[in-house]
Amino acid sequence: MYHCPVELALDVIGGKWRTVILAHLKERPHHYGELRRKVPGISEKMFVQRLRELQDAGLVARAEVPPHVEYSLTEEGRSLGPALQALHDWGVLRAARTGVVIAQA
Questions:
Q1: Which residue, of 35, 45, 68, 73, has the fewest CB within 10 Å?
Q2: Among 6-15, 20-29, 43-52, where is mean pLDDT lowest?
Q3: Is 27 contained in some domain?
């Protein structure tokens, strides 16, 4: 039982890595290696685990497109688009206000 809708949302997408993966997939589908390179600083084991969690939550789809594996957002994952965009926009503004540099991948 949840006591707040935000609690439910964070249970599904919470944590740094899940949200970052979703943000990259919001742009477009990615092959595994390409997506992996866009998320530096995470171990391979953790990356695979987070991808599986997102698949289990019904937010990310995995498709084999020989010779690659491709990940994309499901319809449920795409419904997060406005929330992910709002987080992105806030992060850009926050970085500008505080002088934080965001590396472009």
A1: 45
A2: 6-15
A3: yes
Which letter does DSSP use for residue 63 in this model? Answer: E
pTM, 2 dp: 0.91
**Does 105 fall in a domain?**
no
Q: Which two structure tokens, joined as six digits, stand for 26?
A: 């919001």
Q: What is the DSSP letter of 40?
A: T
In sequence order, which residues have a C-beta less than 8 Å from that of residue 68 and are 6 or more positions away?
31, 32, 33
Domains of the chain: total: 1
Q: How far apart are CA 40 and CA 35, in angstroms?
A: 10
CA 48 to chain centre: 13
Give the pLDDT confidence score for residue 69 in this predicted structure. 95
- H helices of 28-105, in order, are 32-37, 44-56, 75-78, 81-98
Structural domain including 92 reads 5-98
The CATH number given to whatever domain includes residue 12 is 1.10.10.10
